[in-house]
Amino acid sequence: MSWEFGAAVTCIVVTALLGLPIGHAMLASSVVYLLLAGQDMSIAFEQMLNGLYGSYVLLAIPLFIFAADLMNVGSLSDRLLDFCRALVGRFRGGLGHVNVTASLIFSGMSGSAIADAVGMGRIIINLMTKDGKYPPAYAGAITAASSIIGPIIPPSIPMVLFALVSDTSIGFLFLGGVVPGLILGLLLMVVNAWQARVHDYPVDEPVPARELPRITLRAVPALLMPVILLVGIYGGVTTPTEAAALAALYAFLVSTFFYRSVSLRTAYRAVRQSAKSTASVGFLIAGALAFNYVVTVEQVPNVLRDALAGTDLGRLGFLLTVNVILLGLGCLLEANAILLVIVPIFLPTAVALGVDPVHFGVIVVVNTMIGLATPPYGLLLFVVTSITRSPIRQTIRYLLPFLAVLVAGLAIITFVPDVVLWLPRLYGYGG
Questions:
Q1: 60, 106, 152, 247 from 256: Cα distances, Å
Q2: Second label for 6, Cα 20 to 30 Å away, from 62, 95, 173, 335?
Q3: Which residues contact 361 (CB under 8 A, 6 or more apart)?
Q4: Where do the structural domains in the chain lie, given as residue ranges?
């Protein structure tokens, strides 16, 4: 690797520390590299345009974002939450269980941890802190922990990005995330039950049995959304991108005509918010595409592969090393940046060691999602503390037991590949 590459990496670090968005920082560093290497600087923009306009799969991202924003401005989130309260709210620490269950269900629609925390999370935090039932910091901690499940259970925007850089089937990646997501949700509920007993959190009044059919019926249209999405993909009716379009259309029709909870003003607000989020993700992808050209020219993946081959780590040693590195980076970097820039560096080594790409993709996504909730710079920490107005130090203290079981879940996913691959193989995956 050359000194020009060192200058480019330094440029990313310095500009990011100064507050420049990571997508802008990667684009600036790519231009610096090309300038110092005496290459045509238009190459950076050529890589951006070819990558963005040549990847049909990227269309799924704005569509999933739009579907999630429609659910947030409409009443789908409220109805799903009522259903979850009726389902698990009767147990000790019930609202904590509702928080996790709602994330499991909502994740089948949004594909985004931030959308889960901002939409469903805001509502459940208000319920948990009402009348002093739960400390605001605890409500924020369990919301941050449960929100990471969103992009692990399909649909998943990070998995779309992994498919972009690895050329792995999105459908099989989605299936691979189902069982790991359920395991992580169960582990979070175990910790919540233990915390509820230790701190004597209240038991909510159970929903009368006669109310259950009515609550379930009100939630059925919202609950059907992930079913339609997955049947479309795995039934061979739609591609994942077409399924994302179907999800956005279904969310719009149900919110507007069935629940009648979306007006022209709220629809416009959803479109505007989706456009902002899409532009942010799009610029990050564009910057990563330009910087990946630099990484390829410098043969960084090959250098790393040769270095790891010399250590004789083996497949499990490699996966353990990747977990440690990605968890560390997750404390500092944005998840999508890790997926687009760091992961392609590891892919050649993973392939050479015979690591299954679907298994590797799920491991990477789980790592980056845990990073969203990991101190000191996990984005979910800042999201939930802005909602609860509680000190981040208190939120972290409540969050640590949840992070511990999430890492334990990551270990299970890493060292027991069948946890990830069992469901894809049922649907014909040959890995």
A1: 22, 19, 28, 14
A2: 335
A3: 159, 162, 163, 166, 168, 173, 176
A4: 1-40, 58-426
Q: In which residue are the tokens 């009100």 written? A: 218
Name residue 139's amino acid. A
Q: Which residues contact 147 (CB under 8 A, 6 or more apart)?
A: 103, 113, 114, 116, 117, 121, 372, 373, 380
**CA–CA separation, 183 vs 178, rounded Å?**
9
pLDDT digits (tens, 9 = 90+) for 295-339: 777 776 667 666 666 666 778 888 998 898 888 777 766 777 788
Longest dimension (CA), the chain: 75
In this structure, are residues 243 and 155 in contact, taking their beta carbons and an 8 Å threshold?
A: yes
Give residue 18's Cα distance to chain centre: 26
Structure pTM?
0.78
Residues 6+ apart with CB under 8 A from 126: none
Residue 299: helix, strand or coil by DSSP? coil
Q: Are the C-beta atoms of 298 and 333 separated by less than 8 Å?
A: no
Q: Count the helix, strand and coil residues of the chain and give each as a percent rounded to the nearest 5.
A: 80, 0, 20
Q: Is the dihedral of CA 341, 342, 343, 347 positive or negative?
A: positive
**Residue 431 to residue 416: CA distance in whole angstroms:** 14
